[in-house]
Amino acid sequence: MIQYLYHLEYDLPDSEDSLEKAGLVFHAKMYSLADKYNIRGMKAFAKDHFQIRAKGSCRVKEFPTAIRTVYKTTVDEDRGLRDVVVDVISMNVDLLDRPEIKEAVKDTANLAFELLMKGREPNFGPVQLFGSVQPFGSGGGFGQQRG
To answer: CA 24, CA 60: separation in Å to the nearest integer?
Structure first.
């Protein structure tokens, strides 16, 4: 945080930038600190870097921990990082096949609800979120009549 105050940016510690980590937890914690101390520029900086890293590195081992960190360190009304997490999972729905991601979603009831609501958005829809879902009565699935 001190580095940001002097230089209006911060660097990831070497331990946070590896094949297993993308700095997601670090950026989430910096976002939380910025919110606590009302440093808007640092909050925006942390969000931007979290978003870039999450979209490009959502398959790193750190992602489930980052999910939990985001939801534990931000209030419901602060959509900054939460929207990023929801968008990344929605656009990479196969992440939900990973046991550690499943556990993170189960541990975070709000995330499960937000993913469900994301699937209801008119511009997103169930086809994009859940593959080729057909409405009931359209010739497939539970709505199909037996002859």
So the answer is: 10
